[in-house]
Design a protein that fits this description.
163 residues, alpha/beta, 3-stranded parallel β-sheet, elongated
């Protein structure tokens, strides 16, 4: 596995370098009793892997990429791409993300979490309060397991402004 510089891997991410399906084949076919299916995973510089995402064997994620929360990445992700869903699909580019949200960016990286939360509650209108609450809550409580695919896609399309 190779991980570039300035890569953010968030809580619950799973990176798999082997295919567990080979276990079934080993037990079904005696000639395959000793097989494995392995694949190198690489994540390029300056990429963000969202909460609970899963990266499957043999996948290369390019530079400057965003992988949405709970995405299952089964294919390579080109540089400068935003992907989300199960399986992960491109939903836009980094440039589209930047253009869509440039008016929403605020300078808060110097703040502690409580100061940032207070800032959000003070600056943003009440209609956005549920969205900000989700930002501070666990993704597990936001996305129901029974509708992971659709809700994760809708969430990231909204976040990236590509709906």
């Amino acid at each position: 596995m190779t991980i570039g510089d300035n890569v953010r891997i968030t809580s619950g991410v799973k990176i798999t370098t082997h295919d567990g399906g080979a276990w079934t084949l080993r037990h079904m076919y005696p000639k395959l009793a000793d097989i494995d299916r392995l694949g190198r995973v690489s994540i390029g510089d300056n990429s963000h892997i969202g909460m609970d995402a899963m990266i499957m064997p043999g996948v290369a994620i390019g530079r400057n990429c965003i992988v949405g929360a709970r995405a299952v990445v089964t294919h390579d992700v080109p540089d400068n791409t935003v992907v989300a869903g199960v399986p992960a699909r491109p939903i836009g580019t980094i440039e589209q993300y930047r253009e869509k949200h440039s008016s929403e960016f605020v300078n808060t990286k110097h703040m502690g979490w409580q100061e940032k939360r207070d800032f959000c509650e003070r600056v943003y209108p009440p209609r956005l309060a549920p969205l900000w609450s989700r930002c501070f809550a666990s993704v597990r409580s936001f996305v129901k397991r029974t509708a992971v695919r659709e809700k994760a896609r809708q969430f990231w399309e909204t976040v990236c402004g590509l709906a």
